[in-house]
Amino acid sequence: MAKSLRSASKKKTKAIKRSAVFKPVEDARLDRLATAQQAAAALPKVAAEEKAESMDTDVPKISTSGPKLNSKTRRQQKRAGKKGGAKKKTINRF
Description:
Radius of gyration: 35 Å
Mean pLDDT: 82
Pfam families: YBL028C_N
Organism: Hesseltinella vesiculosa
Largest sheet: none
Low-confidence stretches: none
InterPro entries: DUF2423
Distance between the termini: 101 Å
Number of domains: 1
Shape: flat
Number of helices: 3
Oligomer: single chain
Order of helices and strands: HHH
Strand content: under 5%
Number of strands: 0
Protein name: DUF2423 domain-containing protein
């Protein structure tokens, strides 16, 4: 019969593999990331004014406050056009 992943022998081999194979790789990766993070922290920070100057461009601002043109609004507009809009009130004159 096949051994389940919950069996003691499978758990033991996984633990050995985790500590012998994957642990050194993980530690090396952590060391690399820590040194890279220290190097990045040592760099001078960009001032807010320099960011603002670099952000200034002559691109016009796009307005997003208009009606949505999705299928629901198109369907509603189409129905409103078929009905003829607002009906006039009839006045009975005797």
